Amino acid sequence: MANIQRVLTGITTTGTPHLGNYVGAIRPAIAASRQAGVESYFFLADYHALIKCADPERIERSRLEIAATWLAAGLDPERVTFYRQSDIPETTELNWLLTCVTAKGQMNRAHAYKASVDVNVAAGEDPDAGVTMGLYCYPILMAADILLFNAHRVPVGRDQVQHIEMARDVAQRFNHLFGKGRDLFVLPEAEIEESVATLPGLDGRKMSKSYDNTVPLFEGGAKALKEAIARIVTDSRLPGEPKDPDSAHLVTIHDAFASPEVKAQFHADLRAGLGWGDAKQRVVDLIEAHVGPMRARYAELMAHPEQIEAVLQAGADKARRVATPLLAELRQAVGLRTMVAVPKPQVVAGESAKVALPVFKQYREADGLFYFKLTDAHGHVLLQSRGLSDGREAGQWVKRLKTEGAQALADAPAELAQGVSAEAVNTALAALVEATRQAEAEKAAKAAQG
């Protein structure tokens, strides 16, 4: 697990994806999720969408269309964790925990908020006119999205780098206040997408809905794709006249889908006088060969939204297996602990009173496999491992659970004992983590004394 890198990508659920979104974001993100050593999290940022959009029907429709688009484009929910932000209640709980350690002055410096204030001031309005707390606190919710899964890397454009820096600052402050010498949160790194392709639109400007110059990805089918490509602006050179492929927006779109051989041939044919009409038909055929099968899958998913819902619910379950133990550990750290009877100290003659702690036990069964289990102070089993072929592996897992607590539980080869709640196990692990930390501190102090 030490070499695994968690990469988290948020997908805003407003609007319908177009060809530029596919080339610039969807395709490279899916390709990156297939790399070795990467554990990818993709989530529909529907809470974030509420900051920008107050149209419930648009939010609902967009969530469906965007989920169907990513799945049709090849996102593998078996390989990645694909979920809706709003299906993870731990997100909003962590959002509040982080809000309580975030300085207001830091939020005052957030780019989105400052931009809104600047627009209001320029218009002679009150600086905070139209500014909601959702907009103002947006960076904290984004930090919660990232820190809940302790993502190592977050692919973002340059305009989002400040938010990653804020997430790091908040994580560092939380670690300092509540970590007691250990890091509860990984400090995320922004992965700036410098090499991501930006497709030109029909008029040559960046393809964007705000410019009304987009080429549809799936919407409208093959007919809409052909009509959009036909409207791409080209120069006035006639068939037979040489054309410069390096200055044509049509060629940039073509090359985003072409193999090196097809790309070279297209450039050569344009220099030899290929007409723009024929060139546009080649672009249509090339993109349709790539997009057509995905469009068929998209149509199937849109006709059966219950299939998408099942994928997202399974993704939420997978995500919560990571989020729930971490939130339990964070609750312990800040003092939001379960109120239970204080254990009576077990006194050994001639020694100081010691509170009985949960205990890990390792053993080997007749099947030749190695096991470990966690029991409470009275011997009741809380956690039971599966059989492991290597006794050292069992010992390593015990060590991780005693030092990392609930954070390691999501990956551990173990299951809760029948009738035992996750909260009971998390509380027991938190007690062991604290005892281990204290023992190490005492050992270090004795070593320092001589």
Verbal overview:
With about 450 residues, the chain is an alpha/beta fold. It has helices spanning about 20-35, 45-50, 55-70, 90-100, 105-110, 110-120, 135, 140-145, 160-180, 220-230, 250-255, 260-270, 275-305, 305-335, 390-405, 405-410, 420-450; strands spanning about 5-10, 40-45, 80-85, 155, 190, 345, 355, 360-365, 370-375, 380-385, 415. The strands form 4 sheets. It has a 4-stranded antiparallel sheet with strand order 8-9-10-11, with helices on one face. Helix 1 (about 20-35) links the parallel strand 1 (about 5-10) and strand 2. The chain is elongated, with a radius of gyration of 28 Å. About 30% of the residues are buried.
Low-confidence runs:
none
Find the count of extended strands (DSSP E, 2+ residues). Answer: 11
Mean pLDDT over the residues: 91
Overall outline: elongated
Look at the helices and sheets and give the structural class: alpha/beta
Tally of helical runs: 17
What share of the residues does DSSP label as strand, in percent? Answer: 5-15%
| Helicity range | 40-55%
Main-sheet strand order equals 8-9-10-11
What is the CA-atom radius of gyration, in angstroms?
28 Å
Order of helices and strands: EHEHHEHHHHHEHEHHHHHEEEEEHHEH
**Main beta sheet strand tally, sense and closure:** 4 strands, antiparallel
The CA-CA distance between the termini, in Å, is 37 Å
